[in-house]
Amino acid sequence: MSHLVHSDVEGAQKGPEMGINASATLCYKNVMKRLLRVLARTADGVCAIDRDQTIVLWNASAERILGFAAKHVLGLPCCEVLRAIDDNGCRVCRRNCAMLRMALGDRPIATRTLSSQTRSGERLWIDVSTLVMLHDGHRTRPPVLAHQFRDASRLKALEVAQRRLSRGPRIESPVEVSTTGASGSIDLVELTGREKEVLELLADGAGTRSIAGHLFVSTATVRNHIAHILSKLGVHSRLEAVIHAIEEEHEAAGVP
């Protein structure tokens, strides 16, 4: 069930300012309420905040994605709940955050992929779009922001895998999880020791010839190993095999 604190929504747009027609202000409040009710029913997670960055709406999809129940987050500062960080490990959620400042400056807010905290304490990659709601014609009034987000963990794993399979320089962000465990090998129990070595080299971006040279075997032998890896993992490409390995390591480490 989605929740909306009606008093907070009205509080975020306190009383008509001098010179503003009362009926126009009432109409604006009604439109705002209807818009927030629509957002409450979307399949994406929605976290709406007032000008003090207090959460006034937390829909059922937000609870499903991040695990926090509405009754536990309504009225809290959004930065204390989401605790989002970017690719570089820099904290994005904070008091008087950049998104709020951009909204106040009437600047567009681009969609971003961020790592957010979940109820279990784990982190989850989410794509975040931000809707800025300003009082029409009165830009000095503080806005209400609605963060609309969806699970982007699989797309992020694909991005990491593509980066590792590329032939360019390998650059990892501080929040990127390695495909290798503490022992240096991918713990996929169905694979033989040599198949794990091949998969690790694939994850590092090595091609068939490079793997053959590294392991001192023929390219035909490498292709056979790769065929066995794909068959055992139930995937159809080298990229899918690497993604599968990343996801298993994330699950084993408790990282989304």
Overall description:
The chain has 256 residues and is an alpha+beta fold. The protein has 11 helices and 6 strands. The protein has 2 domains: 3-151, Beta-Lactamase, CATH 3.30.450; 155-253, Rossmann fold, CATH 3.40.50. Helix 8 packs across helix 11 (238-253) and helix 9 packs across helix 10. It has helices at residues 6-11, 22-40, 60-66, 70-73, 78-82, 98-104, 153-165, 193-203, 208-215, 219-233, 238-253, and strands at residues 3-4, 45-49, 55-58, 112-117, 123-133, 144-151. It has a 6-stranded antiparallel sheet.
Task: Report mean pLDDT, rounded to a whole number.
Answer: 75
The CATH architecture designation of the largest domain is 2-Layer Sandwich
Identify low-pLDDT runs: 4-19, 136-143, 167-187
Q: Provide the CATH superfamily of the largest domain.
A: PAS domain
What distance lies between the first and last C-alpha atoms, to the nearest angstrom? 25 Å
CATH topology of the largest domain: Beta-Lactamase
Counting DSSP H or I runs of 4 or more residues, the number of helices is: 11
Question: Which structural class is indicated by helix and strand composition?
Answer: alpha+beta
Strand order of the largest sheet: 1-3-2-6-5-4
How many domains, in number, for the residues? Answer: 2
For the CA atoms, what is the radius of gyration? 24 Å
The amount of helix comes to 40-55%
CATH class of the largest domain: Alpha Beta
- What is the string of helix and strand elements? EHHEEHHHHEEEHHHHH
Shape descriptor reads: elongated
Quick one: biggest sheet? 6 strands, antiparallel
